[in-house]
Amino acid sequence: APLCRPGTWLRRTDLRRLIGRLCWFTAGARWLKPFMCSWFRCLMKPQVVLQSLDAGQREELHRCLDTALVAREQCSLSDVQRGWIAMEVGAQKVSSADALLCAVSKNGRAWCKLGDPDSRCIKITKAEAQLAKFFRAVIAAEVPVHLVSSWKPGVVAAADAFADGTRAGLGGWWLPSNLPLCPENICHFSIQLQPSDLPAWFLCEGKEDLQKYICALEALAQLVLLACRLQSDEQVEAGWIAVRQLCDNMGVVGACAKALSMESPLTEVLQSFGLFAARRRVQLHISHIAGTRNEWADWLSRGAGSCPTFWSKLEPSQRFRPEWEQLLSLCHSIS
User: Fold this and answer.
1) pLDDT, tens digit, for every residue of 183-198?
2) Which residues lie below 8 Å from residue 56, measured CB to CB, with a gap of 6+?
3) Which secondary structure element, helix H or strand E, spans residue 142, and what is its range?
4) How, if at all, do strands 121-123 and 167-174 pair?
5) pLDDT tens-digit readout, 264-321
6) How far apart are CA 270 and CA 290, in angstroms?
7) Alpha helices, DSSP H, located in the chain
8) Confidence (pLDDT) at 163
9) Which is it for strands 167-174 and 157-164: parallel, antiparallel or unpaired?
10) In which element (H, E) is residue 150 found?
11) How far apart are alpha carbons 192 and 275 in whole angstroms?
């Protein structure tokens, strides 16, 4: 298929029809839904247009740009059209319209990279072609899509994440069946992180303030909790099972319910979630709980110094040490 070849030009109308069909397909195969954000981004991305503009043309474009760097009207001195987006000038990212006036020019002209969001066609990138191959392989497999899951017997389970500048942590716990609810009986995990522990793609644009990634970290904590629970209780049921966990971040609860986010790195965490769920035949339902009632998970995410009394009651033999790096990187296993 043309979509599977990098560099192919695809009409936006054709891609729009394809996305409509994939939305219908992923309504059943929900674990694929997190990957739909890549198709939405592809549909919305502007076609790159290069213009060599002199000082007068750049001044006119400067006057036409709004605060979002979108041309409010067609330029009369150049071929820049209404709706085009200023992206780069002189190989430098345009962060404000004033960058057009300060650009380094050669022979009085500077190359400007603009984006046309209404172009008739879109150029498929290598990553998009790889994703198309992945979807094609899944659809061609013709395996049954389970529309109903059987609920696993109720187990109390909760996870949380902590982030503050250059420090972060993941924590979670669950209570094995038929045991009284107390710290001595819970199975648990606690992971402390620094920016250097996380992959480069997770730290968007090189920002190392881990608080900016709290939603992605909260979702990762839920994925790690699910993996630990399945590791401790081997799944033998036929078909898919449904399990429930608690989270005190309403944004993550909503994103996991939709199985979709357009914000990185939460997008990639949800994709890893989807692949893990498909491989283990499990459907996770995350319910919201107030932070004041999620103290155990919070203390586990902050480490042993957060609440010594609670930590002293935990059973060391019931602490899990999951391979969270492999879980986080599942989203890249399709390439």
Assistant:
1) 999 999 999 999 999 9
2) 77
3) none
4) unpaired
5) 999 999 999 999 998 888 888 999 999 999 999 999 999 999 999 999 999 999 999 9
6) 22
7) 12-28, 36-44, 55-64, 126-141, 214-232, 250-258, 266-280, 295-302, 308-313, 324-328
8) 95
9) antiparallel
10) strand 150-151
11) 25
Q: Please tell me the predicted confidence (pLDDT) of residue 273.
A: 93
Q: What pLDDT does residue 148 have?
A: 67
- For 289, phi and psi rounded to 5 degrees? -135, 140
Residue segments in the chain with a per-residue pLDDT below the cut of 50 = 236
Listed residue (145, 274, 267, 137) closest to 213, CA to CA: 267
Q: Which two tokens stand for residue 303?
A: 């480490």
Strands 241-247 and 282-288: parallel
CA R_g for the chain: 24
CA separation for the pair 277, 50 (Å, rounded): 43
- CA-based nearest residue to 242, from 228, 230, 224: 230
Q: Which two tokens stand for residue 177?
A: 């069946």
Instruction: State whether residue 232 is helix, strand or coil.
Output: helix
Smallest CA-to-CA distance from 227 within 279, 186, 192, 266 is with 279
